[in-house]
Amino acid sequence: MAIAAENQSQEKASTEVSGEEKKRWTLNDFDIGKPLGRGKFGHVYLAREKRSNHIVALKVLFKSQLQQSQVEHQLRREVEIQSHLRHPNILRLYGYFYDQKRVYLILEYAAKGELYKELQKCKYFSERRAATYVASLARALIYCHGKHVIHRDIKPENLLIGAQGELKIADFGWSVHTFNRRRTMCGTLDYLPPEMVESVEHDASVDIWSLGVLCYEFLYGVPPFEAKEHSDTYRRIVQVDLKFPPKPIVSSAAKDLISQMLVKESAERLPLHKLLDHPWIVQNADPSGIFRG
Ligand SMILES: CCc1cccc(CC)c1NC(=O)n1cc2c(c1)/C(=N\C(=O)c1ccc(N3CCN(C)CC3)cc1)N=N2
Q1: Is the sign of the CA dihedral 104, 106, 112, 114 positive or negative?
Q2: Catalytic positions, please?
Q3: What is the tens place of the pLDDT at every residue in 179-228?
Q4: pTM for the full model?
């Protein structure tokens, strides 16, 4: 997607929709509904594709913002990667198009909204809800890693909830194909594993670490290495200074799983397929990946 190169031309539309047909989308193909949320680079709106009446989420990003933050290459990679992934726990990217000032991403609509708001509302999740979410994310990451894609930015802010209560990984802005691993710093510090904080080579096991951090935050309401100062968080991560508070009460099985994921040596972290066989997951996760309360 040569965003910059097409600046001068009028509305240009994208190609890929669902791989089969070539579809050139424009804004006129959609009725725009209510705003759903806002991010650093733009807003996301509820929208309906006029011909099919298909409900989607239209994410509008401002080219000026993207250029200012020099993230065009990340957006191109996000579109390239996410448009080719097909998994029930990965938000679909159906296509994109752009005009003079904006880039539009045509995304799957997740009807129950943002996970981080749900976590803030509940303070922390039950072990069954946490295990159900962690298992579905593990399945999505196994699928990604099988396609040599690592997400690298698994955190509550990048997770959405679908109409049936299922979790959807969104925002592949920091994902990469593993054959061209990057040493760049990315994401907020809390979720970064030691090898990324120390910016050394990293591989798919970075997502195992982040999933372990996420599991801890689902159960306790705060990430494990949180500290007032960045430098303290950094130190707690590289020292794997993992402590389990006395409240809320959490099973030893859950603590055992988290302790097997938050391991400094990336090769020693519990592989994702073994996570699905861990007693805490087997005893608590709903196999459908849907938390029914
Ligand atoms: C531009 C926004 C943004 C910036 C950065 C990263 C991300 C990915 C998470 C995003 N969002 C994004 O790409 N998104 C792609 C999306 C998407 C966001 C979305 N849904 C919602 O945002 C949403 C929000 C609230 C909602 N509620 C319904 C129930 N009510 C009780 C409360 C409200 C229902 C849906 N569907 N596809």
Answers
A1: negative
A2: 153
A3: 544 444 455 778 888 887 776 667 889 999 999 999 999 999 999 999 99
A4: 0.87
